[in-house]
Amino acid sequence: MLLQPRGYSIAGATIAVVHRSAPLPTDVAFELPRMARIVEVIRETPSVKTFVLDSAIDAQPGQFIMLWLPGVDEKPMSIAGMRPLTISVAKVGPMTTALHALRAGDMVGWRGPFGRPFRLEPGQHALLVAGGYGSAPLYVLAQAALAAGLEVTVAIGARVADELLYADKFERLGVPLLLSTNDGSRGVQGFVTDAILQSPISNLQSLTVYACGPEPMLVALHKLCRAHGWHGQLSVERYMKCGFGICGQCALDDLLVCVDGPVMTLDQLEGKHDFGRWHRGPTGRKFEI
Q1: How many other CB atoms are there within 10 angstroms of residue 63's CB atom?
Q2: Domain of 62: which CATH number?
Q3: Which residues, other chains included, contact 204 with Cβ-Cβ below 8 Å and sequence gap of 6+?
Q4: Global pTM?
Q5: Residue 58 carries which DSSP code?
Q6: Deepest of 45, 49, 180, 225, by most Cβ within 10 A of its Cβ?
């Protein structure tokens, strides 16, 4: 797929416009939101709630939906469960704050699924690495990997113990867990990469890292994979508006995260100037990560 980025300056902000030679996915490009009722709200951590909807979705692990709150905003959300459709959301801004105020019986809209998913690699030990609130899409992936007969290890990092999202759910799956917290309140003190390097799993050669979390963590994992000769698939986050490649808001160099990602390979991210350095805000203006 050929991507030809061009930059335009508007009121001092550089706007990336990506011209694509390949057609857009016409089955989703003009899709309208479907309304769904919230049937259950679960408090996962002090900052994360899970919302179970009276909808189902046919999606692959790593894909996302665009969640719409009428009169508020629409944002991309990772899929934490498909039947019923489930999302786990951290309260980080106005839209997610409004979502956290909703209760069972309230209505939301959604469209999707969008994006490129994780792709399981046969014969490889699957190391699923989550940071912050990145555990949700990896929980679906862990279930798929176990069903495919793969060996699975999960590593989760957070600032403090009560923010280790989905640790209990992964424990119930029976997979080995590597935990880290910045303050040492649970697991290894430090970053999730420290927990990985202190584990015997770091000696494996046939290993694929599947990761979702803060971009500095993804950059560290990219380097770790290259140093050990591991395969890697990293779920990258960017500010999105459309979800299907029209607005260009989620440009990462010459890639659009909503259609070329969010899951990207090590090779796709190799040498990308913005990776680990720059995001774009609602106006398209760049800011440092």
Answers
A1: 23
A2: 2.40.30.10
A3: 125
A4: 0.88
A5: -
A6: 180
